[in-house]
Structure formats: C-alpha cells, structure tokens
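Standup notes, structure subgroup. Blocker cleared on the coenzyme A input:
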Amino acid sequence: MNAGLVGVGKFVPSHIVTNEDLEKRMDTSDEWIRTMTGIEERRIAADDMDTSHMAYEAAQNAIKDAGVNPEEIGLILVATVTPDRPFPTVSTMLQEQLGTKNAAAMDISAACAGFMYGLVTAKQFVESGSYDYVLVVGVEKLSKITDWEDRNTAVLFGDGAGAAVVGKVSEGRGILSFELGADGTGGKHLYQDEYLVMNGREVFKFAVRQMGESALNVVEKAGLTTDDIDYLIPHQANIRIMEASRERLGLPVEKMSKTIHKYGNTSAASIPISLVDDLAEGKIKEGDVIVFVGFGAGLTWGALCIRWGK
Ligand code: COA
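Run returned:
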C-alpha cells in the first residue's frame, strides 16, 4: 500500500513587492535580481498576518481538495522555521482552528527542505496503518526574520504557505521513493541570529550538487530512469540552481516547475505552492511521474519520486 497526496492547497498574501519597490529601499536593481535569481516579485504578509494564519488558509484548501472530514486527520505536521512563537507550535494552533479534534500535532524544523521531511514522515504513519490521513503544511513568514538593510538576502525571500493531505492511494500511485539528508558541517553557511544570515556562494555550490544528486537517487530508487520523469518541482530558491538540476536530469524546460518569478524563495512553502499552481495550469496529469527536490539551512535536503494520482 502506498501513501500519496490526496489533496493540496496554498495561500499567499495579497501584497506584492516588486524588484522596483526594493530598488527604492536598498542599493539593488531589477536587472541584478532577475539575472542572478530569476525573481521578479514576492508576496509579503502584513504585520497582523502571522505564520499560523497563512498555514490555516492553505490547510483549509488542502482539506477541502481532499474531501476529507477534519476529524479523520490523525496527525498535523507543520514545516516552518518562522513559527508565530517557539511554543505552542503552529501545528497545535491549526489543530484547534481546523476542528481536527483527533489529530496529534508537531512542527518540523528542517528549513527549506521541511516540506520534504514532512511528506516522508507522513508516509511512514499512513503506510504503517497508524493514521488514515496526515496533514502536512509548509509555511514561512520569512519577512519577519529578513534584514531589510541587507541586499544580499532581502531580495531573495517571500512569504506563503502550501499544504497537502497524505493518505492511502491505489497500487502503483503515490510516493514511490524518497531521500532525506543532513550535513551539519554546513550550518555556518545559512542561519538565523536576529536575522537570516547567508553565505550565498557556499549555499549555491551545495545546492547545485545536492539537488541533481538527490533527484537522480530517488528516480533510481523507484526503479525508473530519467526518461520516465514527466515533471520536476525543485525548491524555488534561484533559477540558476533550478536550471542546473533540470540539466543534470536531461529534462526540457517545459518539464520543470517555475514559480520563483512570482513568489521568490518561500522556503518550506515553495514546493507545495508550485504544485498547486502547476495542477491548476494542467501541467501535471494523472499517472505522471513527478520529482520533488529541496534543500535548505542545516544543511538539509530531501527528494521524493511520486506517481501522481489517487
Ligand atoms: N543587488 C545588487 N548587487 C548585489 C546584490 C543585490 N541584491 N546582492 C549582492 N550583490 C553584489 C555583491 O555585493 C557582489 O558585488 P561585488 O562583486 O562588488 O562584491 C556581487 O553582487 C556578487 O555577489 P555574490 O554574492 O558573490 O554573487 P553570487 O553569484 O554568489 O550570487 C546569490 C548571489 C545570492 C544570488 C547566490 O549566491 C545564490 O543564489 N545563492 C544561493 C542562495 C539560496 O538559495 N539561499 C536559500 C537556500 S534555501
């Protein structure tokens, strides 16, 4: 029996901040940001919209899409590094707000790879028969830990949430294989003091190597080859990193998800947000082989190979 994604949802704040808006605030240019990162605009949450609010909206959409009763959800996993506060967790806040009265709840802290960690954890609980449905949310309000005086980081990130309900799917469908990993020696390259601090060059090098490698590993573990991949959803951190993994897999441009121009890097939310947009645009069909691959602070990484459908 396989676990798969039986419903998905997203939420992004309505306020758009363009590269031109940032030009007015710091020494940067639309041209630099576009060429170096692929980002054109990002969504920034208002002061009174915290992480749990975005998580709730995305989760509601995913539960509705899955057509499940909230009481059937046995576990809520929220992947975030920007919770409203250290505790109570965002997941327990959702547990109350969603009416998921039978759900256990915990947050997962694995930065931009958090949604991958969440999906893989959910898979274990569903396939073991422990829970019928697990809700996984990837959500960040990175704007609250961004140093708006630091052009090296401020131009890169955005706020948003994506969610999936993981449940049983039919034979041959769902999560076929996965890889998770961590390398704490790279922790110094991306961390939070008061604000987010990053050594962009080092993270870039790591990401290019790891994204391609992990994507190849999960395809192989699923008993498939790169020719079988119908669609790649890489973590939307930088278009040049994404392109490097696409090229490593030998995929044409139209087989890679690209939403970074609209949302920037939304960390744990980037893959599920992209998934929702791609489904809405008809880019993913029943039976397609999809690869998710993400990386982030820690350093952490994760990839999944999924045959889409219930
Ligand atoms: N606007 C204009 N110039 C900028 C700038 C900005 N927003 N940010 C940096 N620069 C300048 C630098 O000051 C530097 O100028 P200098 O040569 O005069 O010193 C120049 O651009 C090159 O900077 P550098 O940081 O060496 O460029 P880079 O090729 O490493 O690209 C990133 C910078 C951030 C785009 C790139 O390193 C990156 O994307 N790294 C991965 C980040 C990431 O994905 N993080 C999230 C992980 S989940």
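Discussed briefly. The chain is about 35% helix and 25% strand.
Next: hand off to the docking folks.
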